[in-house]
Fold this sequence. Notes:
Blueprint: E1 2-8, H1 17-29, H2 34-40, E2 42-48, E3 51-59, H3 88-98, E4 103-108, E5 111-122, E6 125-136, E7 142-150, H4 155-160, E8 173-179, E9 183-188, E10 203-207, E11 210-215, E12 219-223, H5 239-251, H6 255-264, H7 283-294, H8 297-306, E13 311-312, H9 320-332, E14 339-340, E15 350-351, H10 352-360, H11 369-385, H12 387-392, E16 398-401, E17 414-416, E18 422-424, E19 427-430, H13 439-452, H14 460-475, H15 480-492
Parallel strand pairs: 10-12, 13-14, 13-15, 16-19
Antiparallel strand pairs: 1-6, 2-3, 3-7, 4-5, 4-7, 5-6, 8-9, 9-12, 10-11, 17-18
Amino acid sequence: MRINLGIALDYPVNWDFEQVLRDLVQNFYDAIDYHQFGKEFRFSYTEEKGSYLLEMELKGHPFSYEWLVYVGGSTKRGSRKIGKFGEGFKICMLSLLKMKISDITMHSADWEIVPCVYEEIIEEARIPMLGYEYTKVEDDGITLLRINGIPPYHKRLLEESLLHFFYPENPLFGELITDSENVSIYTAGERRIPCQQELNFNGILYICGLARGRLPLPLFILEKNAEIRDTRKREIYHWFDVWMEMYEIARKLDADASLRILELMHQYWNDRPVKLYDCRTWFYVICQLVRNISLSGEKSKLFMERHPDLYYIEREGKDKKRNVLIRQTQIWARERTGLVNPCFRLLGAKSLVEIFLKEKMTGFRLPDHREKRLIELLVRICDVLIPDYLKEESPPPVFIGRKGQGSMDPLRFAVRDYRKKYHLEKIIMEEDDFLPTAFEKTLVGYCDKLIQVSGSRQCNRTNVLFTQLGTTLITFSFLIPGWKAEWEKLAAASPDEDDR
Length: 500
């Protein structure tokens, strides 16, 4: 019995043999769970008389031939499987006939069909049409597709056809990293991707089981709940789409899988952000993996045990003084290895800015006994001149440097404090600041360093403190000679002289 499909043989569709082969395998792939595909699906091709005989076979999953008759009818409708248009098998048969491959048999349950060509007369024109020769057979529980007469130059496509699909036995796959309800991930196995010589192509992203994206990472990833796009053409995803899928995948991973993938992305650990969702950087994917790992104390500890020498330089912000220090650190650290982006601080990476500050402190010392007494005098004077400052802040510790070192900007040693503006952690002074003749210069310089960390010259609090300093210097000018005399007496004492 012939079944007329009403599809003209010159219907303008041009699928090549690779597209046809992929679509036919997809029909079998969608019939079973991907975990069983490698065990239950039989795919074989044998050379016969200068051409190839291809057979695809599956047991225990019969269906009615009527699904292959109507355009728009599909067993996949309403599912998350690729296809659903009810046209794939028909277009495959049409394309094969155009390629002069006509020895084709499809069998399932108790039926068998063979694609054929028949003619219909439309306005006196004879139009070749696609149809099926239908035969009722014994039900053997097998679904089988046989295609004979495939030209030998398609051998490579036959060899690689199953690599397009995600299943545990895929020869491209190595070790399983994770298999959750959202994603399955394998490392790369020993077999290379056939076109892996291309740059940035070491792994594959599979959408609904089909290879759709190229990955620069040695990973084979199945995104199970991805939005299905371009299901007719099934073209390779644009790099931006792959990047977006990878970011969404990273958000769904646990700490263990994130740790394993992060270590495979070692060359991207120091990627920097360009702008949100910019696929020229893996910064956002790396940050998400780090956040996932940081939720597990065990995995965070394990990561730092494996990678103890990691350092980060914080990103520049609105704090101009801090930005100067960051840029100085970047120059100082040009040759340093182990640099990562700042999000790694969540796992225990060390701050290079802090290390740079400690290095810059080389050659400084703590004040001796004489200098401590002079510093105590400065604090007592400041309690009179700028009392509002010392009500909120304890006087920071002082370090003594050689000549020229005391000119270091105090904001290098300030940290942001959102209750105020900054918190000053230390003040740098020089040995010459404690000479008997240096009272006026040292007093003004000490007050200035305390006030500077309150904010910029345009900051209201800073202006108030400087105004208060000027006012009190005038108001308490009668105290200055006594302070100066006490300074000169203390400054003339021996550094080791005991307090009498």
